[in-house]
Amino acid sequence: MKNRMIAIFVFLLISVSLAGMAMSKEMKVFAPNVDIKTGAISVPDDYTRWATLGTWAHANTEGEPGSHEYHVVYTQPETIDYYQKHGSFPDGAVLVKELLKAETMQMTTGPAVSHATTLKGWFVLVRDTKGRYKDSALWGDGWGWSLFNAPDSKKTVSTDYQVDCIACHLPARDLAREDAHEEDKWIYTLGYPVLQNK
Questions:
Q1: Cα-to-chain-centroid distance, residue 129
Q2: Neighbouring C-beta atoms of residue 97, cutoff 10 Å
Q3: Per-residue model confidence as pLDDT tens digits over 13-32
Q4: Coil, helix or strand for 80?
Q5: Measured between alpha carbons, how far is 133 from 126 in angstroms, rounded to an integer?
Q6: d(CA 130, CA 164)
Q7: Other CB atoms within 10 A of residue 54 CB
Q8: Which of 57, 50, 56, 125 has its CA nearest to residue 80?
């Protein structure tokens, strides 16, 4: 009888452990800046410690030479490793585009040298290979999409990615590698040489 009670106890203990592991795996955060229940995206607190994918300069279109804005794009180092190995973005990859105002001045290094000044906001993308938030207007085409105005890094100003975000990413599809994963064609990977295989 004692052996039977021990066997039942061990069986229950193993069952509870396995159930707990299954639940924790199911509830595992797939990206550090996504509320797993609602799909709400925020700007990751530590993104400036991540790897820099690349920087885009937006030129002044009237008057003075130089740039009026910089877009510095960050991602987790493991995203770069994965992309170099597989040629695609992994589930949970986060891309943070930091939007910075810029000024241009004459310096000894040149007559029109631009530099970043103040933070305007952020645009954040989160790769979702599983289609987790089908009911959200900010998730689709393989990504979560959100724009944030500084200084509020927690509340997006985007309401619908198809209206607010996708138009700026349409040219990326024409510039993408032919063999790129369909959802990865939304990303301007041509501006990120670090993603190329070493």
A1: 13
A2: 19
A3: 444 444 444 333 444 568 99
A4: helix
A5: 12
A6: 22
A7: 17
A8: 50
What is the amino acid identity at position 80? I
Q: Which two tokens stand for residue 164?
A: 């607010």
Q: Decide if 30 contacts 91 (C-beta within 8 A).
A: yes
Alpha-carbon dihedral angle through residues 157, 35, 122, 145, given to the nearest 10 degrees: -70
Instruction: List CB contacts of 115: < 8 A, sequence separation 6 or more.
Output: 102, 103, 104, 105
pLDDT digits (tens, 9 = 90+) for 168-179: 999 999 999 999
User: For domain 31-195, which architecture applies?
Assistant: 3-Layer(bba) Sandwich (3.50)
My answer on whether omega of the bond before 151 falls inside 30° of 0, hence cis, is yes
The structure tokens listed for 15 are: 């069952």
What are the tokens at 42?
């925020």
Interior/surface letters 59-84, b for 16+ CB within 10 angstroms, e for the rest = eeeeeeebbbbbbbbbbbeebbebbe
3-state secondary structure of 134: coil
Would you say 124 and 43 are in contact if contact means Cβ atoms under 8 Å apart? yes
For the chain, the domains span 1-29, 31-195
Q: Tens of pLDDT along 109-159?
A: 888 888 899 999 999 999 999 999 999 999 999 999 999 999 999 999 999
- The contacts of residue 1 (CB under 8 Å, 6+ apart) are none
Single-letter amino acid code for the residue at 192: Y
